[in-house]
Each structure stands twice: as structure tokens, then as C-alpha cells.
Amino acid sequence: MKLKNFLIYLVTGLCFGLAFPPINLYLLIFVGFVLLLNIIENCKNYKELLRRTYITVIFFELVATSWISLAGMRESADR
Asked: What CA–CA distance (Å, rounded) separates 60 from 72?
């Protein structure tokens, strides 16, 4: 896997992840969709498509759910 492709997957996942609360930069979802459509369009077969979107979704999930581990560290987290 080329570094350029890996960076595209990373940026796409970050755009999707940062578009959800608590960060809520919702306009990044449009950038993420454009990048995802570019990834999908450049695939030659379904196996390659699955591999590329899987990497992107892993980055998305890491960013989107990272706030859960920090939620219990505040004093008023359970109120």
C-alpha cells in the first residue's frame, strides 16, 4: 500500500470522525464523502473496495469513539 493512499484513507476517516459530537465539525462530513467517493471510484474490484473502505472505517471508529474513554475522567461526568 502506498503512503499516499494510506494518507487519503486516514484523512477520510478523520473527516468522518470529527464530524460527530463532541467535536461536531459537521461540515467535514462533506469533505469525507467526496474523498470516499474518490476511493470508491478508483477501485478495480470488490476485494480492493472492501479493503480500502475497511481501513477508512477503522480510522473513523477510532476517532468517533475516542471520547468515550475520556468521558469518565470529568468530575461531573455521571450527573
From this structure: 22
Residue in the structure block whose three cell numbers are 470508491: 40
Could you read off the pLDDT of 11-52 as tens digits, one per residue? 999 999 998 877 778 899 999 999 999 999 999 999 999 999
Q: Give SS3 for 65.
A: coil
- Residue 71 is predicted with a pLDDT of 64
- How far, in Å, are 6, 17, 29, 68, 77 from residue 20 at the CA level? 22, 6, 9, 13, 19
Between CA 26 and CA 30 the distance in angstroms is: 8
Nearest to 9 by CA among 62, 64, 52, 63: 52
Separation CA 51–CA 33 (nearest Å): 17
pTM: 0.80
